[in-house]
Amino acid sequence: MASTLFTQKIPSASTIFSFYTSLSAFTILFRTILNELIPTKVRDFIVSRFKDHFSSYFNPNFTFIIEEQCDYVTNQTFRAAETYLPTLLAGITTGSLLVRSSNLKNPLAKPKFGIPVKAKILDVFEGIPLEWTLLSEKSEGLYQSRQKRYFHLTCKKEFRDKIMSEYFTYIAKSSAKILTSQDNLKIHTYNPSDYSWESAIFQHNTTFETLAMEPEVKNSLMRDLDAFSNGKDFFKTVGRAWKRGYLLHGPPGTGKSSLVAAIANYMNYSIYDLQLQSVKDDAMLRQILTKTENGSILLIEDLDCSGADASCRKKSEDEGEDGENQCKKKKKKDHQVTLSGLLNFVDGLWSSCVEERIIVFTTNHKEKLDPALLRPGRMDVHILMDYCTPNVFKKLAKMYLDGIEEHDDLFEPIEKMFREVKATPAEVIERLMVSKDPDVALKGLMEFLESKKMVKESEESEPKEADE
């Protein structure tokens, strides 16, 4: 009886075929209506929403996307991950690994290992399995195309909130600890073709201990740097950006670059060396400088050759035209970075984008700079890197010549000569390195200074002869 009822409920083959035919006709009709009446973009949107809904419903995983760039600045979470993940290379699941070695001092030093694109790295946080993947794609920027990098961090959905609240904080603290313990400073240069900063290990050995400089100037600078380093609360209290500006000016060969190296080594700051000539306009300048890191030195050398001179202002005053407008016209023709754009990063609103920054400008001709750059608050400290003095000479002689104390008889005439003629520390060093024998080196320096004195006396006598 039961089997009879069961067989009666089973539809016949013709009924099933009829239902299938009706369903197929309805599907074809629906697809035709969808294709004919609904625009392609709207149709794709509907389909994608359906896919997203069902995939998210059935997919047990959740993925965080961490892009390298965040607005104008580097995404600090990306930077923290990039620093932290190389410590987990034992958990890499792909068959490749980046191997890098940039220690020019020691070619046998242990290489550093990095994360290649599409590599998967496994991590465990409080028992939660995590998977990191580095990805990259080409992106069209404002000035040129560049590679856009980003991380995918995948976990189970039920752990999403814990990862958001605790794990990202954990990797931020871990990366900060790693960066603090790193021995090597870096020097960065901007690559306009790749729209990014490129770096190398900074290996300059100059320190304040080895720097040949007037003692009172050196000590004053060191006190100023110490006050800046410890002044975070002070700058916050007075409502100023935590930055300090230095102008190093003087003739070529007087040690401006060496002083920058000494500051970097003293403060343990990396250097961002920016060539303004490679920057297209003010907007690009903002994007470049906001990509620098906290606790760093921004170096702009030969400022008088970078469109910051006062020549156009003087010319416009002679012609009766407003100096600032004339300078803007000149910049548009010759160089797109304007003075106002540069000043915005010295003391304008954009100067607060990076904390604990030292800005160093160098120039051989301070008198050529636009007065707007020299106002208080823009370049806080002006340091004259002058010609060699007796004190500087003694410091150089002790560093470059062994047993120099036995040649005091030559010191007095050389020191007297430095009061009469001008010679740069670079010129003095060149003569001191001629021989390791102090007697030979000092005599050669004396002859060099005497020849300079003769040239000076000859030049001074020429106007008198012309007047006669």
Please characterize this protein's 3D structure:
- By secondary structure, the protein is an alpha/beta fold.
- It has 3 domains: 61-182, no CATH class; 199-384, Rossmann fold (3-Layer(aba) Sandwich); 390-467, no CATH class.
- The protein has 16 helices and 15 strands.
- The chain has helices at 2-9, 13-37, 40-58, 76-84, 160-181, 215-229, 232-238, 256-267, 282-289, 311-318, 323-334, 339-346, 390-400, 408-418, 425-432, 438-467, and strands spanning 61-67, 69-70, 73-74, 98-100, 112-114, 120-125, 128-140, 145-156, 185-191, 196-202, 243-249, 270-273, 296-300, 357-363, 381-384.
- The strands form 4 sheets. A 7-stranded mixed sheet has the order 10-9-12-13-14-11-15, with helices on one face. Strands 1-8-7-6 form a 4-stranded antiparallel sheet, with helices on one face. A two-stranded antiparallel ribbon has the order 2-3.
- Strand 12, helix 9 (282-289) and strand 13 form a beta-alpha-beta unit.
- The longest helix is centred in the last third of the chain and has 30 residues, at 438-467.
- The chain is elongated.
- The N and C termini lie far apart (146 Å).
- Mean pLDDT is 80; it is low at 312-324 and 326-333.
- Residues 242-389 form the AAA+ ATPase domain.
- Belongs to the AAA ATPase family. BCS1 subfamily.
- Keywords: ATP-binding, Hydrolase, Magnesium, Nucleotide-binding.
